[in-house]
Amino acid sequence: MFNIVLVEPRIPQNTGNIGRLCLAGWARLHLIHPLGFLLSQKHLKRAGMDYWDALEKYEWDHLEHFWQHYPPNEEHFFLSTKGKRNYFEANLKDECFLYFGREDAGLREDILHTHSSQTLTLPMRQGRSINLATCVGAVLYEAIRQNASSLLE
């Protein structure tokens, strides 16, 4: 399974949609607190529909707590509009970790600087960005494409 890591997400509908993507796309969802919503909010449940309860999901108090369990290495990728390398150039192996930051701020600068060789971007027009759930879907399905032979057996 792949690992989708949402660092301090703010919009419940995005998180619900990402949960649906994870369940359909062989991925676990890791939610890094603080969240900008309650997991009991109806918007999250509506977007996640009946998938939410079946989803393999984990909550973490903060990113450093998560890293105590899953220390960053070459299998951890950080998505940002500030990345220099396109996501389809990375070798996204099964069990890799794909990090996505807050909808309003992205990942912290210190994370991007420390892990610059593992920071990826989606190609898009300068000055534009896309919805977080759309971004997660694009990267997750590239990982699926790269690992299709083992996933679809």
UniProtKB/TrEMBL annotation:
Please give the catalytic activity noted in the UniProt record: cytidine(34) in tRNA + S-adenosyl-L-methionine = 2'-O-methylcytidine(34) in tRNA + S-adenosyl-L-homocysteine + H(+); 5-carboxymethylaminomethyluridine(34) in tRNA(Leu) + S-adenosyl-L-methionine = 5-carboxymethylaminomethyl-2'-O-methyluridine(34) in tRNA(Leu) + S-adenosyl-L-homocysteine + H(+)
Q: What is its EC number?
A: 2.1.1.207
UniProt GO MF annotations: RNA binding; tRNA (5-carboxymethylaminomethyluridine(34)-2'-O)-methyltransferase activity; tRNA (cytidine(34)-2'-O)-methyltransferase activity
Keyword field contains Signal? no
Which GO BP terms apply?
wobble position ribose methylation
What residues form the membrane-spanning segments? none
- Subcellular localization: Cytoplasm
Top class in the EC scheme: transferase
One Pfam family from the UniProt entry?
Answer: SpoU_methylase
Main subcellular location of this protein, as a coarse class = cytoplasm
Can you tell me which family this protein belongs to?
Belongs to the class IV-like SAM-binding methyltransferase superfamily. RNA methyltransferase TrmH family. TrmL subfamily.
Instruction: Relate the protein's function as given in its record.
Output: Could methylate the ribose at the nucleotide 34 wobble position in tRNA.
* Protein name per the record: Putative tRNA (cytidine(34)-2'-O)-methyltransferase
Tell me which species this is from.
Helicobacter enhydrae
